[in-house]
Q: What sequence folds into this?
């Protein structure tokens, strides 16, 4: 983009087209409820409408926006107030505009020098969040620890595991078959990304222990201890425990305090995955989710899930940043510079896997500034309150049963007619386009997950969706 | 964002503020040349201006935009026409707007169902690119292979290595010390992310072989063969070779054809990293960079470097997608759905590390549509031509010497007064704010890298910067 060059979009054209795109997005949000939440297309429907060959000659931007009509039927509307699948990806106006500024500036914050503001704002805002959420001070940059933005919780867990591995092997994980002896532990309800991380790190599925859960789907510390003892007897080396605060299936809370004590006793890295639940700690009354974090070596939560900051934005804290940097840092000549040599700054490329880094703290900073702590708290409280009301409705209907505790904003329920019926009901709801919910299995039962957390969801939306679920279940009978 | 809810930005406000942000970005590009290219702040300068405490009460969006005045001095201007450091991150109007639409829609394309258009457009556009760049057909989705967008080349290389490791160990890399026997090879000029990937994968630096380069900084196939033979004799298992087309230090081209033959002979995975160079193949006359790709198991290039698509957008092709999916796929109950079960679609979460995925193909699609093949070709040709002219200027000045071939758009040169002088010269240039260039070392010489590739760079910009370099060098003397 520039003022004059021929093939590029001129800034005047950018203004005009940019205003149109902004209006297009505003119109989208004004009408988002009119689309089927789950895309109703069949495999190949979108592709078959795209030209086989790319254009030789460029198109006007007006035509390009027109072409969005091909794309839209293939969108599943994550920003619909009736999106209750998986966990939310709740975005907001200031987040979209903050990300737009970041895209516009087009900087790559791989090291401090390549945009000092990118590194310093990230560190600053992540320090703010430690205070806002009453997390342990060891995660702040003025201690030995610090925070960094990763793309997803998958990457955060992987980075935690790699750091644990390098710490346990003193950087020699591949020697003398060390990797083959390392053992990682998590509950059978933990996110699949933990298993993926164990595979990536070369530790292997065979050396992954799935700890049993109690009747609330929380990890049993007694079983963890038992397996650690057994592994030690077998000459293996326990190096990593991932506790989950708010599991994906049912938002179960692992007893981090008890787990932490065991990790301390056996000198095992404790990572706490609170990808969805984390932002609840913005409110004093929900800080039970922070219990035991004093034992954590690393901690993760995702503002892109439930803190109004668009995807991707996953926060990763570590209690000892030197261990993380030792794991991730490789310094070739072409990346050296005087400021980095002086060690007076952080180079965040050494805090994660990719070298290049977007200016992601900008959107997070602008979201916090726009809502303020009080606005973010109200957002969380509104969802907690709505969830309570919805839960009462479900409880009071004798055709349905709730099958797991609801500590946060996910309700797990089923129809009393059993698995096949519940599955059929869910399919009908999703095919209607009126709402999108997903399922899980708990104790071999097919469960509908009703996840609340979208920005624009109101109690009226929940009422409408719940009524439709009840009505549909009666129709199926 | 919605029409009415209290704490959130209303769509009418979003329109107003969005137009302002668009104009802010347009103004930025209109004036980008007036900023010092390399940020001139000292460590802590930006942070010290940020409030210690996050706000309790939210701010207006007008104030938030005002606050960008704190940030701007801490920006290094990657989009300046005088940015010649590292490699470019050339963006464009249609890319920014395409990414904005993606941010606005806020979808997460982790599986086909969660937004069919996100998966199908990505596959379609990456098939287009195979044709546009005359890459081997095995990388297209209608063969056994396919393409996927990763965040960076670091991740692409890692994913390639992991797939090679799982293939070589039949999924049992952690058993019987297998990881400790695996050997990876790349040239001493390859990108540091290869070494990082080897570390992450648990293969370890000890098992990483740095192959010697010839006088053009290209990998010596004879040395590769020699080390492979030695490793085999020592009972080790060569599993991975990364060849580079356009190294970071000097855009050296490894002889992929010869390397590929060796990989085929010994059954070793060949990954080709063309992160910067790749887009040159849009033009028929530069397709020498594709030489030997028929041997490649995987291939990577970054449209976010030199194809007008903003960061992050790194393309990863694989010749046999089943090997990639076997490496990356973990399927928990809560991610299952009927369409995925039918295997009629791709679930791109199984093609990389993160579960969550932005709708990144949208910006790439819109860039290709806006410029057309011919516009993109002209963009590449303009840069190649400018580089040639600049090289003539440098060559004709007897105070400077060019120390490496210039196959693409990076010129490596030094002042004849030696290392200390050249370093001092570079520091002065960067401190002036008039241009930003970075350095490397080649044969123990301190080298200035003059990298061309920014969207708005013209021959006049290059002339001005070159004149300034010459003038400054005389002043230092």
A:
């Amino acid at each position: 983009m520039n003022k004059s060059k021929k093939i590029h979009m001129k800034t005047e054209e950018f203004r005009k087209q940019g205003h149109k795109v902004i209006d297009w997005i505003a119109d989208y949000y004004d009408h988002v409820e009119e689309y089927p939440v789950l895309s109703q297309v069949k495999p190949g429907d979108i592709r078959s409408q795209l030209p086989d060959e790319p254009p030789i000659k460029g198109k006007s931007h007006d035509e390009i926006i027109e072409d969005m009509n091909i794309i839209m039927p293939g969108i599943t509307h994550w920003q619909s107030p009736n999106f209750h699948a998986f966990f939310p990806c709740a975005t907001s106006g200031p987040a979209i505009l903050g990300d737009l500024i970041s895209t516009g500036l087009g900087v790559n914050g791989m090291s401090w020098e390549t945009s000092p503001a990118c590194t310093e704002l990230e560190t600053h805002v992540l320090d703010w969040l430690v205070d806002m959420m009453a997390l342990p001070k060891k995660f702040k940059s003025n201690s030995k620890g610090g925070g960094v933005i990763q793309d997803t919780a998958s990457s955060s867990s992987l980075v935690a595991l790699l750091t644990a591995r390098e710490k346990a092997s003193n950087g020699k994980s591949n020697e003398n078959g060390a990797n083959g002896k390392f053992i990682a532990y998590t509950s059978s309800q933990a996110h699949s990304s933990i298993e993926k991380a164990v595979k990536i790190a070369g530790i292997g599925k065979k050396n992954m222990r799935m700890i049993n859960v109690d009747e609330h789907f929380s990890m049993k510390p007694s079983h963890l201890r038992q397996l650690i003892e057994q592994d030690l007897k077998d000459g293996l080396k326990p190096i990593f425990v991932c506790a989950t605060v708010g599991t994906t299936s049912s938002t179960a809370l692992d007893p981090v305090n008890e787990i932490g004590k065991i990790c301390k006793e056996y000198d095992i890295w404790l990572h706490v995955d609170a990808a969805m639940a984390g932002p609840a700690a913005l409110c004093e009354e929900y800080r039970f989710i922070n219990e035991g974090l004093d034992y954590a070596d690393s901690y993760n939560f995702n503002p892109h899930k439930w803190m109004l900051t668009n995807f991707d934005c996953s926060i990763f804290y570590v209690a000892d940043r030197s261990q993380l940097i030792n794991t991730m840092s490789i310094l070739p000549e072409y990346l050296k510079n005087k400021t980095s040599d002086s060690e007076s700054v952080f180079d965040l490329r050494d805090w994660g896997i990719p070298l290049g880094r977007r200016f992601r703290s900008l959107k997070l900073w602008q979201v916090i500034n726009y809502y303020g702590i009080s606005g973010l708290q109200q957002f969380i409280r509104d969802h907690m309150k709505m969830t309570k009301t919805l839960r009462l409705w479900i409880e009071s209907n004798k055709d349905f049963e709730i099958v797991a505790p609801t500590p946060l904003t996910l309700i797990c329920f089923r129809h009393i007619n059993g698995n096949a019926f519940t599955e059929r009901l869910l399919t009908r709801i999703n095919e209607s386009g009126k709402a999108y919910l997903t399922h899980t299995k708990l104790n071999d039962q097919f469960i509908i997950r009703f996840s609340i957390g979208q920005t624009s969801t109101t109690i009226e939306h929940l009422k409408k969706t719940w009524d439709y679920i009840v009505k549909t279940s009666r129709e199926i009978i």
Q: What stands out?
A: Residues 415 and 421 of chain A are 7 Å apart (CA to CA). DSSP finds 15 helices and twelve strands in chain A. The first helix of chain A runs from residue 11 to 31.
